[in-house]
Amino acid sequence: MNQTLLPKTRLDDFIRFLSARQKVIAPVSLGNNQYKFDEVSSLDEISLHYIPTILPPKKYYMPQHETLLKYDVSKGQEMEAVVEVEELVLFGVHTCDLAGIQCLNMVFSDRPKDLHYLIRKNYLTLIGLECNDYCDSYANCAMLRNHLPKGGHDLFFTELADCYYVHVNTHRGDELVEKSGLFDEMNTQAEGELAELRTRKKERFKSEVAIRYQDIPRLFDETFESPVWEDVGNRCLACGNCTNVCPTCYCFDVMDEPDLDLTKGRRIRVWDSCQHEVFAKVAGGESFREERKDRKRHRFNRKFKYPVDRYRRIFCTGCGRCSRTCMAKIDLKETINALMEERE
Amino acid sequence: MGRPKVAFFDLSCCEGCQLQVANLGEDLLDVLELIDLVEFREVMSEKWEGRYDLAIVEGSVVNDESEQRVRQIRDRCNVLIAYGSCATIGGVNGMKNRRPIEESQAAVYGDKTDWFPATKTRTVDQVVKVDYYIHGCPIYPPEFIKVLKAALAGLSYPVPDFAVCVECKFNENVCMYDKGVTCLGPITRAGCNSWCINAGNVCYGCRGMVSNPNRNGAEDVLRRYDLNPELIANKMMMYNAAKESTDE
Questions:
Q1: Which residues contact residue A322 at a Cβ distance below 8 angstroms, ignoring those fewer than 6 apart?
Q2: pLDDT tens across A14-50, in order?
Q3: What distance in Å separates residue B221's CA from the closest CA in chain A?
Q4: CATH number of the domain at B5-153, please?
Q5: CB contact B28 to A (< 8 Å)
Q6: Domain coordinates of chain A in residue numbers?
């Protein structure tokens, strides 16, 4: 069975069922039309209709601060690898964020494999939730074809009139459906509603920028020296908000944190950002990307060009977080439009 | 080799940063196992005549006497930590640099000005060499412990040279600008774990500015949010005036 239905009246039961087994993480409101993924134990805590959370769910896959190993210098170079994990169910993850996790999976499975990431990933269950309409005008998910489910989930929920259509994608998802005993069989009415919704979405979601997916990398190739970067660099505050909120930015710094006895300690990794001045600084004080415009251009290329060369996939998910959070209002869609205009 | 001899000193300040150490709670016990605290006027009356392995200096240099004092401390210590905004960037003491010194003196001491000779406010590193910086008003206790460990292990402690926004995003706070409130986070250097914003306050810039802020860009942002750049400049000067170009 890979299609099933959950009546809306039983959603709270399902959340409680999950929460009795392990921690459940879902979008919750912070006020000001802002949201974050946080622990919940019942439906009334969850914001089912939310715009992308401040931080994407990557914070559960690679936490902001993560212990990689413990060391004890009194025993020479003795080190012990540590993976801090707990079982979590992430409920209500939008398709853009599922795409982000797929990107991270590719990167961390690449050689050398990142075992910390890969081990933790196995402890996480992903339950997606479809966006029936745009969250807001910052999103550019259709441009990247991420407005529809493309896998990466264990279960995927689509809201219909009285129930949720649920796509069961993995054995783990199937087990939750079976064990909860809350799901009904698929029926023709739901089938019809689903088809109608998808047709409506096709009309509603159109590429937000007039460019074809396959033409995007070339645009960045051809506009590397564009004055657009100058303008973007002049506005950028290099605060790093765009990389921290990005579902596919994974750069990190690694450092040792000694305990107070200065003998034992932990090696930790912390999110880093290519937008920071010190990021590309090397011994001798040289920097590969000294100017804000260099760093901004690098970030865009790291989404639309370089990962296509390496992974054959654009690493922008269209969630719109970078544009939403940017204090200088550097807007992703506007920047791409400006590059296109400039090239003509 | 015994535990390193550590001493706390205060120049012009409120000694609130030292209070943060006294308030460390259980961590204080661990700290005291690591060091031999030989002078710390806020918590003990003993004095030490010998050499200090580590001198932790709070406060700014505001007169000849304090200049002399900090020079003597520097001569008697191996490693010196500038401790708290007053020491690292001048802090609120720097405000007096914004007008002629005579005016400030007259405002405070009236006709007794002669009794209290004063100079412009200077940071500790404007007078003597500083090895480590712990910014903040007050200092952020976890950062103090970090720097202390680095200093005792002989490792460097680079103060984060990126905006408070970074740590604020890590903590997933709703941006103050989205709430319609001015915040100095975007141009203030991190290291405090966005302490104030986590607690519902704004950033006052007490850690000093990032080394290369985009001033024009920041002004654009203020205009966009309909905020007066002068107001922000004023706010920034609450802590940072002593670090502005001096006329010396």
A1: A241, A242, A245, A246, A330, A332
A2: 999 999 999 999 999 999 999 999 999 999 999 999 9
A3: 5
A4: 3.40.50.700
A5: no
A6: 3-63+83-204, 213-252+273-343
